[in-house]
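User: structure tokens for this one?
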Amino acid sequence: TTAVPGRDSPYPDGGSTGPNRLSNVSSAPQLPKSNFKQRGVFSEVVKAHRPLEVESCRLGPSPGADSVTEVPQMRKSASASAFKLSRHMRQRASDALPVDHKLAATEVAPKVVEVHAHRSGARPRKVTVERRKKWYESLDIEALLMQRGISFQHSNWARTHWMGLDDFDNREFDTRSPDEWMLAGINEAGVFLPLRAQALRFQADNSGKWESCLCLGLADEKFQVQWEDGAASAVTRLQIIFFGEDPEVFADRLLFAFQALRRAQSRAQINFFVDNMPIDD
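Assistant:
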């Protein structure tokens, strides 16, 4: 039989030979070369395994029904109760714990004139109390008194005073009475906790310094305080400022007492001179 060109040819272009087809493919537009490398095909990775290789991968005992598997006995693990510390190790562990020798104290919140249920968008009362607390902590009572011309650092600070300073204390500066300060130290469980405060501690030479302390109670109109070194003493109201009390108001209170003392002494001196003036008959 005679092959008809273009009809019986196995190639799409109708040619009878392979080179003619390759010449047509080469004339097609070439795609740009890519930097990606051809990965392996799954059929190139998987290979057929022999039965012996498959059997070697099986785990577990033999599938025979009559076979008995012998499982080696494992040693019993140590329990937590069996581990005991020596007395030396327990002592070292207890010594490593932090020890706080300070008594639990109460920090009284400052008094503010704010409603408890604030409007939407208004400043909450807790924010005002916290700001006032931080402001009070940033103030130094000694610096405030120095600005008002008062200092207890020298031993002769009361050299010209022949009247008591506490007699001229003005209680109108009080935001809480002494009894209210003591009630503020009682927690929800009904237990009194010492109040954090700062008090004027006098030395043997009559010089004073403001130191941190804890107020333990009130007796005979004096506050019983304990200093940081463990010593205890009694102070008057003009010698103690509580945590949560305005230091500026307290400094003004001391200034008022000193001014009232000077005025009283001056008036007493004038009256003494007037009473002892000679009178001509």
